[in-house]
Design brief:
Elements: E1 2-5, E2 11-14, H1 18-26, H2 28-36, H3 45-54, H4 57-75, H5 89-94, H6 96-107, H7 114-125, H8 140-149
Helix pairs in contact: 1-3, 2-3, 2-7, 4-6, 4-7, 6-8, 7-8
């Protein structure tokens, strides 16, 4: 059972169907973008299911390991790197502290907002972003900080 909000802002109970779960898998990237942009997980069944997947400890650990691998790759000599998509090693090294904080927050015990996990995942998945594309005008440090900050629950 999922708790959603209707257009008037009132809570409504809803059941997730098998079809909904399939759509979540197929539309994961788009749903992550919506969550990262601040759309409430309670806005739809699909968003609620995706948010549940994102905040699972296992998923968060996998993201933290992926960030750790990026840091490791950035420290190695270029000829020792065997990645399908090369990272901008200098940019990664320049925001090592921020990436370390992102890892710590992903690995933290307790609940975290789906928005922060979505932001972190999108940062890693965006092949046109500052992590992988030198021509990207986006600031990697700012993006990492934004993802890390979004992992803190509002008090």
């Amino acid at each position: 059972m999922l708790l959603l909000m209707d257009k008037a802002g009132c809570p409504v109970a809803s059941r997730a169907r098998l079809w909904d779960q399939l759509l979540v898998r197929l539309r994961g990237f788009r749903l992550d973008q919506e969550l990262a942009d601040g759309v409430s997980p309670e806005a739809s069944v699909e968003l609620a299911l995706r948010a549940q997947l994102l905040v699972r400890p296992r998923h968060r650990r996998e993201l933290a390991r992926a960030v750790g691998r990026l840091l490791s790759v950035a420290q190695r000599r270029p000829d020792a790197i065997a990645m399908r998509v090369p990272v901008c090693r200098d940019r990664v090294r320049a925001c090592e502290d921020e990436l370390g904080e992102l890892i710590r927050r992903l690995q933290a015990r307790g609940p975290v907002p789906a928005r922060g996990v979505a932001k972190a995942g999108l940062l890693l998945a965006d092949a046109n972003g500052p992590l992988y594309r030198r021509s990207s005008r986006d600031d990697l440090r700012a993006g990492v900080r934004e993802a890390a900050d979004a992992l803190i629950l509002a008090g």
